[in-house]
Design brief:
The protein folds into 2 domains: about 15-125, Phosphorylase Kinase, domain 1, CATH 3.30.200; about 135-415, Aminoglycoside 3'-phosphotransferase, Chain: A, domain 2 (Alpha-Beta Complex). The protein has helices at about 15-30, 90-105, 135-140, 150-160, 170-180, 185-195, 195-200, 210-220, 220-235, 275-290, 295-325, 335-360, 365-370, 375-395, 400-419; strands at about 45-50, 60-65, 70-75, 80, 85, 115-120, 125, 135, 240, 250-255, 260, 270. Helix 10 (about 275-290) packs antiparallel against helix 11 (about 295-325), helix 11 packs antiparallel against helix 15 and helix 12 packs antiparallel against helix 14. The protein is globular, with a radius of gyration of 21 Å. The strands form 4 sheets. Strands 1-2-3-7-6 form a 5-stranded antiparallel β-sheet, sandwiched between helices. A 3-stranded antiparallel β-sheet has the order 8-10-11. A two-stranded antiparallel ribbon has the order 4-5. The chain is α+β, with helices and mostly antiparallel strands. Bound molecules: 5-S-methyl-5-thio-alpha-D-ribofuranose and magnesium ion.
Length: about 425
């Protein structure tokens, strides 16, 4: 029996057999027995397999048995999967688990259930969602999910509004701010997203044929830098709500029926618009990929989802504001409009920074990098760069979903002229 009283990395891609043995022991150690969150495993038929799809930071293993029990074990390592040179606190696993538990209360059924988390091994047991697909993978296959806008807008409205100062008791909210402050992970966002795509960095991943365009449009635009500086300092200073913090399509499990949001280790108290902007940006990456194979039906669906996600978010946010806000000063006439105006400005701004950082920063997205044809990849990347600039520089112009899709179409026309 392995010793689980001291941290070691249990999930090792270079040793699948060793991983399987240790993870089965660990799963039994943590979940065997009866009662809530216990699982009655059929030990003889248990398997533990590392899935092919993985995020940039952590290690995941899927545990199953012949009776249909299943569970994901997720473990943090001190160096990140994306780069041996990068580290982040092992405590991120507790952080993610506790945020998922809170989100399960705020948006029931919309996140995977956490069976346990363990601060010694920096690991958690999470509901197996293998009857769902990671949405980024589904987007690469150009799959269409008509329910996406309805569900993602509900998730964002509930988790953002209910964790904010306008709804929560201020003292309880400040306890959450204290609990979920993660300097290591915030630092990644502050540098990778809100600095390096503009000031340049050796670790930026720029598609070489696009380098001159990036240097001119992103590195060389001082007006853009000023707006991004404001967004960066808002991200650092405005503890508005408990964000997911990395709400891209790789953080969403989806199927024909519904979705579950996961992977919230970048969760932090910051402006709500960071999450809402991320969703819009990631639909634009999917659109760019759709263009590369002239898949009009898929491109139209991504545009429709941008419009509906945004418009439904605004409608639901306004309605739930009236239903849930407890802070007397937030009920003063005009404050709600002021609050929503700022949120919508931020949505546009952070949609822009996500578009830029995933196109030229360290962590790219497969929607763009998998486009083999050089001209088609250039077109998709330039649409992201130009629409992102439009969002950042003209934040107050984005008040309806159709404002976003009109900007994408303008960016398409402008990008085509450059190729
Ligand atoms: C160093 S981690 C790079 C990126 O991967 C995560 O998914 C976050 O988006 C982070 O910015
Ligand atoms: Mg992630």
């Amino acid at each position: 029996m392995s010793d689980f009283s001291k941290y070691f990395l249990m999930i090792r891609e270079d040793d699948p057999e060793g991983t399987e043995k240790v993870i089965i022991e660990y799963t039994l150690h943590m979940t065997k027995g009866t009662g809530e969150n216990k699982i009655n495993w059929d030990e003889a038929t248990m398997r533990a397999v590392i899935p092919p799809e993985h995020g940039n930071l952590n290690h995941v293993c899927q545990v199953t048995d012949g009776k249909g029990n299943k569970l994901f074990i997720k473990q943090a390592s001190d160096t990140l999967r994306i780069s041996e040179d990068m580290t982040a606190t092992l405590d991120r696993n507790r952080q993610e688990s506790e945020i998922l538990q809170l989100e399960e209360k705020m948006a029931p059924g919309m996140v995977p259930h956490i069976y346990f988390y363990d601060t010694v091994m920096s690991a958690c047991g999470m509901e197996d969602c293998s009857d769902y697909e990671v949405m980024r993978g589904a987007m690469l296959k150009h799959k269409i999910y008509p329910h996406f806008a309805e569900n993602i807008s509900t998730f964002m409205v509930e988790t953002l509004l209910l964790s904010s100062d306008i709804v929560m008791d201020h003292r309880e909210k400040k306890e959450l701010v204290r609990k979920f402050i993660t300097p290591d992970l915030d630092d990644i966002t502050e540098k990778l997203v809100l600095m390096e795509p503009y000031l340049g960095a050796d670790r930026n991943n720029i598609f070489e044929p696009n380098r001159a365009f990036v240097e001119q449009e992103l590195y060389g635009d001082e007006a853009l830098h000023l707006e991004v500086s404001k967004l960066k300092f808002r991200f650092m200073c405005d503890a508005q709500a408990l964000l997911h913090g990395d709400l891209h399509t790789g953080s969403i499990f989806i199927n024909e029926k519904d979705l579950k949001v996961f992977d919230c280790e970048f969760g932090t108290y910051a402006p709500m618009g960071y999450d809402t902007g991320n969703v819009i940006a990631n639909l634009i990456f999917a659109y760019g990929n759709g263009l590369s194979t002239d898949d009009t039906a898929f491109c139209d669906w991504t545009m429709d989802m941008i419009e509906k996600s945004f418009d439904l978010f605004c409608e639901k946010f306004s309605r739930r504001y009236d239903e849930t806000v407890t802070e007397p000063m937030a009920k003063v006439r005009g404050f709600k409009e002021h609050y929503i105006e700022n949120l919508l400005n931020d949505t546009a701004g952070y949609a822009g920074t996500e578009l830029h950082r995933r196109t030229v920063g360290m962590a790219n997205v497969a929607d763009l990098t998998s486009i083999e044809d050089e001209k088609k990849r250039l077109l998709a990347e330039r649409i992201c760069i130009l629409s992102g600039k439009d969002f950042i520089l003209n934040q107050t112009s984005f008040r309806k979903g159709s404002d976003y899709t009109a900007a994408v179409k303008r960016a398409y026309d402008a990008a085509r002229k450059t190729i």
